[in-house]
Specification:
CATH class: Alpha Beta
Strand content: 15-25%
Radius of gyration: 17 Å
Oligomer: single chain
Distance between the termini: 54 Å
Structural class: alpha/beta
Number of strands: 5
Length: 190
Amino acid sequence: MKKILILNGSPTGAQGNCAQWIKILTTLLKKKAEVDVVHLVKTPFSSNLEKKIEAAAGIIFTTGTYWDSWGSPLQKFLEDMTDLEATPVVMGKPCAVFVLMHSVGGKSVLSRLQGVLSTMGFLIPPMSGMVYSLVSDIALKGKSSHAKDLWQKEDAELILENFLKACDLKLTWTTWPVDKKDPKRKWLRT
């Protein structure tokens, strides 16, 4: 059975909307994969988390939308895991992204986050990300001919299907040269 790692990038951790969304994802995945959930607000990047990333067939990222960006625990995680860029730990590893929001900003968060993950070396399968909002949740409770234009909870199944198919891919990827000596060294002199 595939090992799937879900990373919760929300500052509310196990208590918020992302944690509720993760319950939906876990239910959808229960017969298809072994799921491990990490709430980044409580578990920052470490060698132990690196081992979980390496062992996973794929990674699912979840975050809320905070002032047109992803959650601060996810930002810190991305900064701390920079050394993994273009390494076998992440290179070609499929990922899916789920962004929650109240009303606006989530689509740009989704696009930017997928761009960051792709540049780092993760594989972005087709249709492997979505934004679910409070506004959509309210709107979908009514009857409308426009409902299909809104992301819906059920769309998570399609995203997970594409994500799991990508987890079965076995390809050898080519990487660009990355400064591995000291990517955090100072380069600006006064």
